[in-house]
Amino acid sequence: MREFPDADQLFGSDSSCVSETISWNPAVVDALRGLAGDVTPLQVIDLASAALPTTVGTRIVLGYEHSQRASTRFRAALWHLRARHAAGKVPPAGIVVPAATEESAQAWVLAAATTRTPATLLVPPALEAAVADLHRDGITLEVVDGGDLADRRDALTASGQVLVANPHDLLCAAGAGSWLHDLDSAMPDIGTVVIAANDAALLLGTLVTAHRHHIKTVLVTRRGAAVPSAVQQALADGKQFPGLALDGRRIQLEAVTVGDAQIETARAVLLRRGLAAGAEAAMALAALTSTSDGPLSGYRPERHEKVAVLLRWSADERRPTRTDDQTRTTGMCAQHGHGQRSSITVIDDTVARSAGIHSYLVDSGKDCYPKDIEIGRRLSSDCPSVQYSARAARAFLERAVHHLANEHGIAQFVELGSGYPFALNVHEVARAQQPTARTLYVDSDPVIAAHGRALLANIDGAFFAHADVTDTDALAREIAATMDTAEPIALCLGFVAEFVADPHMVVEAVSAALPGPIYWILSHVTTDVRRREEVDRAVEIYRTGGIEFHPRARETIAEIVAQCELLSPGLVAATSWWPETASTDRISTLPSANSDAHEDICLAAVGRVR
Predict the structure, then answer these.
(1) Inter-residue contact 544 to 375 (CB < 8 Å)
(2) How distant is the alpha carbon of residue 548 from its chain centre?
(3) Are 503 and 494 in contact (CB under 8 A)?
(4) What integer pLDDT is reported at residue 440 of this predicted model?
């Protein structure tokens, strides 16, 4: 549960919507842990010494922003808006955001969409083409031609009825600095963090969070280049750091410089390992790989000092070459802290992903990429019954898990193709009935894998496996590693079998590989419906995103679970399967099924393998 500071801890009582006095209170930082459900965790990469120049004699960990949702810019914008919403300080007209870079524009639009905040985004003409696809409900894009962004911002906010985004305020700093919470959770023995000096909010947030964790901050600048004025102001203004020295500890901050040659060397180190490497990311790493001996040149850690380097996401680096599986993965000769082989996965966010589209249809798309949103919007507009049935399938899954746990005593569940987390997850439903229940989530999407592992890290009895649903041998191994296969296990295929060419094979092979009693929970879109044209249209829309969607006839769906003895009421519409069973019904806000507007086109069943 998120915890927010009281409004009067953040804002002066006489402050306006345009200019608010924010006090730097520890509660601001403490509440940052509440961002975990909305941001993608950093990918933590432990570089092997063999991957580094011989001059580096220490352990280096990379905190890699592998997507926009993992970026410090998004964290800053999201916390800025979330904290103000919690304090009741966002006017109905919303927020005005002057965005001078594509990364900033994307971060604020995504944060506004996530918090459902109306926003006017002001961009210079040079960014018009780059941000043309950022349209969202409630977001207005305005190109400011022939004028200053600040002037236009001031004109819009003169009435005091619109909030203005200040990317350098302390709420933004607190959000940006939350990346260190991810890092400290994954690698609690970090002693030093290295960041490039291009962002005042990132500097402030990192410095404060690092101080709280007893971590030293190293600030890197390009030799001969001017330090951004906002960063200079943050460094010079002691008022930005009130209370930090009250614990008797000095702020640990060191500034170093690197040259262009060292930056290119660091870039080569990153690129050889499949990491998108912009100048800012390479500049941070260059501080450790630099061989220059001039004043302030590079950073030389102690032999046993463990150092982390932040590699920030850049809009120019987000589109790697597309491969058949829509991602590019490069193995690394490094080890994570738990002895696992690490792999670097760079996501192509111009490609639609079925999990992202499903998140949009069911849960308003808080975990979507732009292409997912595009496909999801077309489906909800042209095929409303598909969106209705996606939500009906999710509500059925919760009811089915509740029923098996409560009525049949099942305490082991496996959700195949689990996708992103929802407001109520399988392990939460199961544990409400069986306190010792164990749950395994399985998905092949690398972003979901990173998300799932981070969220489940401190939850007893909940596990995540990065595997493909069709790799039945791997599925059986993962299940055997986390479950007692002699006891009953329920496997869930909720709104997943439609995206599998041969789901019957999956059910048959996995059932045969597990010795104990097996139950299957299945939901599946059918072609035997009144609104067949909506189903056919959905197939075409998914196909435009490179995704094969396979709705099937009722008879074919029945064959998927032919080896199962179906529990009452058998294979029925998802909304009709034990509708009175307790669940959080996600379709309650939609019109009733079989109305003029919607039809439940999803069949559902629960059965035990004979």
Answers:
(1) yes
(2) 24
(3) no
(4) 96
